[in-house]
Amino acid sequence: MRIPPYYRKPSWQRFFAGMGIGGAISWCIFLYIFGVWQEESSKLIQKQQNDIEELKNDIKIWQADYEELNKQNLEKITVQKINIKITNGDRYKLDDLSIFQTEEAVRDDIKMVLAKDLETVAKSKELIKKIIENEPVKLNAKRYRLKVTEMVIYTTLSIDLELEFDE
After folding, report:
1. Whole-model pTM?
2. What's the rounded Cα separation, in Å, for the pair 116 and 150?
3. Cα angle: 145, vertex 143, 102; to 5 degrees
4. C-alpha to C-alpha distances, 2 to 5, 6, 102, nearest whole angstrom
5. What whole-number distance in Å separates Cα of residue 14 and Cα of residue 3?
6. Among the listed residues 137, 110, 142, 144, the one whose alpha carbon sits nearest the alpha carbon of residue 124
7. How far apart are CA 60 and CA 103, in angstroms?
8. Reduced to 3 states, what is the DSSP secondary structure of residue 146?
9. First-to-last CA distance in the chain?
10. How far is it, in rounded angstroms, from Cα 96 to Cα 27?
11. What does the angle CA 59 – CA 62 – CA 63 come to, to the nearest 5 degrees?
12. Under a CB-based contact definition with an 8 Å cutoff, are residues 99 and 86 in contact?
């Protein structure tokens, strides 16, 4: 096998020399462009990493503030509603209207706890109990006393009462 004698013809020599030089120049251009793209990509990635870190720090700050505000709000929760329930009204054969009117009267007596924070209401629960229990109730020409059996203090103040004859 023999190599063709192209080395003797100058036109072929110029063609191969041009291919070699062109290949070297195009390789250098490729390396330059690739390097510039890599540098831009590296800058973009670094900028995005910095942004992510800043956003994570912001999230931590916001979460800490949010938790602190939640703690403060829980401490300041107020009584929104009062539920009064007389549990043994059927024992004395009282009508529903009398029971309802008695519940409304008790609700009016203790309505000062509405919009108060839970801590204040919890501290004054004995006072609330005494307000309810010390006032006699007159139903159907008979006198009754109310006795607090259960009191739940949260955003809704729930009080269960029982009727007893007044001596």
Report:
1. 0.58
2. 20
3. 65
4. 9, 12, 123
5. 18
6. 110
7. 49
8. strand
9. 135
10. 98
11. 85
12. yes
The residue to which tokens 């159907």 are assigned? 140
Take residue 34 and report the two structure tokens written for it.
């690739």
CA dist 148 and 159 (Å) reads: 7
Residue count of the chain, please give it. Answer: 167
Note whether 87 and 58 are within 8 A (CB): no
pLDDT in tens, the chain (167 residues): 666 666 677 887 888 889 999 999 999 999 999 999 999 999 999 999 999 999 999 999 999 999 998 888 776 788 889 999 999 988 888 888 999 999 999 999 999 998 888 888 999 999 999 999 998 999 888 899 999 999 999 889 999 999 998 87
- Look up tokens 């800043």; give the residue: 54
Residue ranges in the chain assigned as alpha helix (H): 10-75, 96-109, 118-123, 125-133
